[in-house]
Design goal:
single chain, 341 residues, Aspartate Aminotransferase, domain 2, Aspartate Aminotransferase, domain 1, 2 domains, seven-stranded mixed β-sheet, four-stranded antiparallel β-sheet, 14 helices, 42% helix, globular, binds pyridoxal-5'-phosphate
């Protein structure tokens, strides 16, 4: 079965499992797991932050950031379709008791003008805004990159307005490797989360980065949320292995480009597909007239051992990742063509 539903379906390789077996471990609640300490320092240094905290998931990293940066009743500026707002089971209202203020976006990009206008409009009768949260890459639009220059410019507006800036960088390595500039996120934002279990192929874990104080507070929040862990060097070693090998693991952009190009060449024959969208990283979106034609397409593909899923009721998402072999690419193209005719 070729599983294209998400880049979270990747499995640890033999090499990664061997690294896991060799992990040195200790009790991380006492900060005595050398592999975790090494991973946290490695990630912080890599992205220009003072410190890091290994957390169980991207959701936990995002929610701990909200708990740190906000007070109940305040607002967080984000895009209407962001993960932190829509796909974390209402955790932000449940835990931090904040609400979100949407700003218009195109592919996850907020314009400086809209941002300034939102801040201006909030001065009277509206809750205090304490944080801006940006998602890079932006999932809902198909993995679009928020350019590093945009992050810098939003960062300067945030600083001028005395707001914190958080980056939900679940897939930030896709953006960093594709753009090939800007590793020093720590200079421009107050916190950042990224995931080892999306595309990088590790079985579990995310990194939360920030200042030393922020990370010390985050350690407390992690404990309160039940996320304090013990001999987790066994998963931290897999995470470090994934990060060191990021360039090989994230070859999925080339795979997505290959498939996109082939599908576009055959565009006229793909009757029920209205649009084929590719936003430069590892996802392709195929939009259909309605939910039923999208579901029929998914079923047909599955009969030929290719799994895909819906991202919206009429949009099928194809996600490329390390466990899709080069030799599978033509099979995917053939079957998408066949299933859509
Ligand atoms: C953009 C984004 N942020 C955060 C998350 C949450 O990550 P996790 O599933 O590890 O909680 C996801 C998960 O898909 C995501 O796509």
């Amino acid at each position: 079965m070729i599983d294209l539903r998400s880049d979270t379906v990747t499995k640890p390789s033999k090499e990664m499992l061997n690294v896991i077996l060799e992990s040195e471990v200790g009790d991380d609640e006492y900060k005595e797991d050398p592999t975790v300490n090494d991973l946290e320092n490695f990630c912080a240094e890599l992205l220009g932050f003072e410190a890091g905290l290994f957390v169980s998931s991207g959701t936990m990293g995002n929610q701990i950031s909200l708990l740190n940066h906000t007070n109940p009743g305040e607002e967080v500026i984000t895009t209407s379709d962001s993960h932190i707002k829509n796909y974390e089971h209402g955790a932000a209202s449940f835990l931090s008791r904040i609400q979100f203020r949407d700003v218009d976006n195109v592919d996850g990009l907020i314009s400086e003008e809209d941002l300034n206008q939102t801040l201006e409009n909030s001065k009277v009768h509206k809750p205090k805004i304490s944080l801006i949260s940006i998602e890079n890459t932006h999932l809902a639009s198909g993995g679009s990159i928020v350019p590093f220059d945009k992050i810098k410019s939003i960062s300067s507006i945030a600083k001028e307005s005395n707001l914190k800036l958080h980056i939900d960088g679940a897939r930030v390595w896709h953006a960093i490797l594709e753009e090939n500039k800007g590793y020093d996120y720590g200079k421009y934002c107050d916190s950042l989360t990224f995931c080892f279990s999306k595309a990088l192929g590790a079985p579990i874990g995310s990194m939360l980065l920030g200042t030393k104080d922020f990370i010390e507070n985050s350690r407390e929040y992690r404990k309160k949320l039940g996320g304090g862990m013990r001999q987790i060097g066994i998963i931290a070693s897999a995470a470090k292995f994934a990060l060191i090998h990021r360039e090989e693991l994230l070859k999925d952009h080339q795979k997505a480009q290959y498939i996109y190009k082939k599908l576009i060449e055959n565009r006229e024959k793909m009757d029920p597909i209205h649009e084929i969208e590719y936003k430069g990283t590892n996802m392709i979106f195929l939009s259909f007239e309605d939910n039923s034609s999208a579901n029929k397409f998914i079923e047909k593909l599955e009969e030929n051992n290719i799994k895909t899923g819906l991202i919206k009721k009429n949009i099928v998402r194809i996600v490329l990742h390390k466990d899709v072999n080069e030799k599978d690419l033509d099979k995917i193209v053939e079957n998408v063509n066949y299933s859509s005719s």
